Amino acid sequence: MRTPKYAPRAAGAPLGVAYRRKSGWLPFAEIAMGTGFLTIVYYSIDVMNFVALPFLLIFVCGYYWAGFSTLWQEHKAKLRFEREARRVEVEAVS
C-alpha cells in the first residue's frame, strides 16, 4: 500500500488538496486502444472475416480490462485516502 502524498497535520488532514494519480494518461491510452480494436472487430464482422474475431476480442478485452481496472483501483485508493483524512480530522477535533 502506498503512503499518501500529504501527511496529516495536527489540525487535520488537507482535504482541499487534489489527489495525484500515479498512472497519468496510460489507462486512457489503453481504453482508446481497446476502442480501436473494437472498431476493427466491427469491420471484421462487416467484411465477414470471422476467423480473426477471437484474436481481436482478446485484444479488446485485455486493453479494456487493464485500463478500467487501473482507473477503478485509483478511485478506490482516493476514496480510502479521503476517508482516512476525514477520520483524522474528526479525531483531531475531539
Please characterize this protein's 3D structure.
This protein has 94 residues and is an all-alpha fold. It contains 2 helices and no strands. It is rod-shaped, with a radius of gyration of 21 Å. The mean pLDDT is 85.
**Rg, Å, rounded:** 21 Å
Helix segment count? 2
- Proportion in β-strands: under 5%
- Measured distance between first and last alpha carbons: 28 Å
Question: Could you list some keywords that capture this structure?
Answer:
94 residues; mainly alpha
Summed up:
With 94 residues, the protein is an all-alpha fold.
Give me the secondary-structure topology:
Layout: H1 26-46, H2 53-93
